[in-house]
Amino acid sequence: MDDLHSLFYPESVAVFGSAGEGKLANILAGRLLDGGMERVCVINPKGESVREAKGYSSLLDVPSPVDMAVIASPAKTVGSILEDCGKTGAKAAVIISSGFSEAGNANMEREIIDAARRNGIRFIGPNCAGMVCTHGNLVATLETAPPTGNISIISQSGAVGGSFMALSADDGFGIAKFISYGNGGDLTVLELLRYLKGDDKTRVIALYLETVPSGREFMKAVQEVCAIKPVVIVKSGRTNTGRRAALSHTGSMAGADAVCDAALRQCGAYRVDTLQELFEVCKGFGALPPVTGRRISIVTNSGGPGVMTVDRAEMSGLLIQETPDTVKDRLREFLPSFAGLRNPIDLTVEGTGEHYEAAAITALSENDASVVLYIGTPYLKAMPVAKGIASAARATGKPVAAVMQVGADIEESRAYLREEGIPCFSSGERAVSVISAMASYEERRALGSEPRVSDAEPSGRAFGAGCDRLLEPEAMKLLRDNGIQVPEFAFAGSEDEAVASAQKIGFPVVVKVVSPRIIHKSDRGGVALNLRGDADVRGAFAKMREISEGMDFRGVVIYPMLAVGREVIIGLTTDPSFGPVIAFGMGGVYTEVLRDITFRVAPVSRKQALEMIREIKMFPLLRGVRGEAPCDVEALADMIAAFSMLSSKYPDIQEADLNPVFLYERGALAADVRILGKGK
Amino acid sequence: MDDLHSLFYPESVAVFGSAGEGKLANILAGRLLDGGMERVCVINPKGESVREAKGYSSLLDVPSPVDMAVIASPAKTVGSILEDCGKTGAKAAVIISSGFSEAGNANMEREIIDAARRNGIRFIGPNCAGMVCTHGNLVATLETAPPTGNISIISQSGAVGGSFMALSADDGFGIAKFISYGNGGDLTVLELLRYLKGDDKTRVIALYLETVPSGREFMKAVQEVCAIKPVVIVKSGRTNTGRRAALSHTGSMAGADAVCDAALRQCGAYRVDTLQELFEVCKGFGALPPVTGRRISIVTNSGGPGVMTVDRAEMSGLLIQETPDTVKDRLREFLPSFAGLRNPIDLTVEGTGEHYEAAAITALSENDASVVLYIGTPYLKAMPVAKGIASAARATGKPVAAVMQVGADIEESRAYLREEGIPCFSSGERAVSVISAMASYEERRALGSEPRVSDAEPSGRAFGAGCDRLLEPEAMKLLRDNGIQVPEFAFAGSEDEAVASAQKIGFPVVVKVVSPRIIHKSDRGGVALNLRGDADVRGAFAKMREISEGMDFRGVVIYPMLAVGREVIIGLTTDPSFGPVIAFGMGGVYTEVLRDITFRVAPVSRKQALEMIREIKMFPLLRGVRGEAPCDVEALADMIAAFSMLSSKYPDIQEADLNPVFLYERGALAADVRILGKGK
Question: CATH code for B566-677?
């Protein structure tokens, strides 16, 4: 991605567009100059200048080389500007101008893409809010210029990115790079992510997305990045019915956002809901050493905020362990007699900066991270506390987050802590949420190098030409050929064949109609259970033929009567963005009423299948409750993993369901199957 | 509550305690003076003055009358100070001094309470952080002095109250009264709530609680207040295992916080989790007219923040309806051509203050409230937008919340909006959460005047002397006597009686052992099902006698064999704070695995019982899924309501369970019962 260097670190920039007071190019040139870019010029028909940025009527007139074009002129002028860039050697462009595909002018967008390719130019936009590279003194945007830091943000919405930078400016914790990619005509979020992965100024990446167009490619890129640095995402449009993908059956029960949510977790991204959280979690990652465990200590000088912090910590999965007696003894040596020692350690109003320091260090000997709360009192200024906190963080090398509330020297102490690499949060609740997010990242990373997003080799077609639905015996055979446990079964086209097969399988048997036009077999009387002899089988065959009158009767499929096991459902669907998706849940009311179902982008490994099984709400039922024997979860995981390969192996499969799967104390059997092709 | 007037509106205040630089009484006197209290004096052994507050060595030396004592002197001095107050006519005291019951000195606390009573003095504290009454120029606290406003806060934690006022000071939206009641020696949260109910300066009450000592009295007080003005609560200690009440069986499955949560909702309070939310929701109530419906319009100049706002709005139960075509036509008349009209109405960067005004007014013609977002752009300053928003709010009289993000004149426009009665929130998500909270308050109020918290008249005792467990036939009789549907049943002390009863009831029957020492009957073989004749009954009786060898065998109870219905559980427990609590849930794994259970403080009306039934997750099972017939929810509601009366009617009942209740298409039957007394 070396070719993106000139995008982020140009030495000279030309701004295109009307340069009159209040006009876009005028403001942009001013922002670039104020941001510290030394060589800025302005190109517009009148050749107007903006402050010290000299004006020209054409890029070709600029005497010295220009590295980057920032374009805010009308859409129709962009193509020829890019041609001029090619002639003069400018290799990067920020196309802020709108009026392209977002306004229905896809052709014009195609033209500028072609012009850029021809001329070896990489660009962001069009229809974007520009970009910032603080380490390159590049402020090519109308949004708030943030302080320099190590968070980078890629945003599908310019305003959201701008608001993120405004939060940074308010807080003081800075930004490395901001990119608003707009229509993504050339550079997309994928390529930008891969660039930031290798960018040593970027320690954490914030993403704001409304759509994930190439879901699987996106997941792979995020997975690569997350091996190196965290990716924190707001993906909005959660509830927008217009964005709900057309997932059928099991998939549609939870809606596409559940798929997106699973996909983001699967590739290692951390999803948050609000811009505030996005900034705070990034600030934690940007400032703190890794959080390698969930045991946290809380040090406070006031009970109430301590209790609220504990509540949230426990709710977010952190561990607030009682201080061990030996550690209490050590604390007693130096803390005031009224101090609470349990965790939170409550220094009370008698606490001093030294108490804070020593208490935090002592508590961190037993914990993985610490949240330290200071609520201003007349007895203790914030600054000594800030110094104590910073010393404790230095002494232990562990993650310490601070909350400084109320008091005259709060701002000063927050700034001091920022310089010392300690992030301050607005409340203990927020601090522990960030710590929990950071612990999650390390936990996922510790899962090892097993790829979480993968593809399987296509191995053929599931359907014959012109066909988009497998008959039940065909589907059962496909399952069996792919290592999925199914009951013994036989297809029979005549009564005699049916009787012979039933005898071979052994009574009692089940007979089901086989007809490409009968979908809901039970509803139409197409399933005969518990047949105990030849006569029963003949009778059932005759009945199946009768109900299939005019429905293209092919015969029957015969199974042994299965022992009833615990019922679960496994489904495969095709998400418009993420492709094949595997779903697992409890059958019946659990799925319909509780939406107790979990998703992964397929295929999944056995290990991932086990994770899926364990994360449904009703998992205790499978593990065994009330003295019941546990179900064979291992066999189920094998089945989920094998089934999850089908869509990749046979790319003509659109969706498939095993409903129900019977789970036994030993083994699992797919008791019914439905496989549909993409043809329909 | 007239006697509290002098607490909030004293004309002269004496501060007790060491008055040296940096000492508590010194700071307090300074805060009072800075807050605008004109007549302040200081009492300490040396008679030291603080600024213009003249010092005396005794209250008795002060020449003019003193209305209130603010006491920060050592605990042991407080009693005699109160006696002096009595002598000089001071009627109110704020006792900040600590060292009373919280430090194990309950006697000393008792003494000051007695001294206050003797002398007709009302006080807050001891061990409190003081109080504020902005309209009375009273700042008797070390916490941040807030601007004047209409939110009042009562806080069990001084630091939390102080942080709340710091939020107010930062935001500018002000406070009417703040009370930190500390140990609650005299004035408790109950009396303070009732005072604030009648306080015309208070429009909304914020509460921070860690414990709810007299749960039922508290609920009644909150219920009274909520008929007049909203109460918003943070109740912390959610997860603190130390605070978990010892609820048995059904109750213990969810933990005491679920009971507290249900109790707060039941009496009409709105519970939030964080201090930030507490302030924001109060600000909404304090600033806006009532939110009388859930349809909201969103007006924005930027897509991304609009989408995030819609997501949160839908998640919090608000309705984002597509703009009707007729309204779109009206919008088209004045909006820029690129504007999005659907809802959110997206004015894009071309929007002006006039567009904001007209769009908000037009959208409000179809909606109950509006959230208006402005994200700064170089094309449009914040101030014209603020003016447009304020005009729209004035013109429609409907609730309008604003979000002003990014831009040079943001602070100024927020201040303008505040003056105009429009609250600003930090994001669209937060604004819609507040609107949703306000809509909830109005919905609960609209439920009408039916008391939600009540008591039943005690009508007797359920248990004989020395007894704390009813035998099954006794318990069944108690149920039947109290209008709860139970199966026909008969007690039989001998084989012959058993046979006679079985014949009368009609075969097949069920026989269960009756012994005060056999609790888990099924586990010990004490239940015989489906007995079809005299011989079966004789055999069962003999077996029951055999298994009760040495277990105080009393006989058997005989029932008809019941048709199996849908199983549910109804439970009564006694919460240490809220008293009798009724629980309802699905039986078996639904309760054990899913915790699908709901609570109310008992007794409940039929209407409340119906609410309980409808709020469990598995309610669709009762309503009928997959073509099954619905269960008789009305009969179930009758049973819950009748059962919920038992603890109040028979105050010697500690806990009781109907497990299971069989629910049928018509009717419901309590199939098993367990009733335990308080004696045990």
Answer: 3.30.470.20
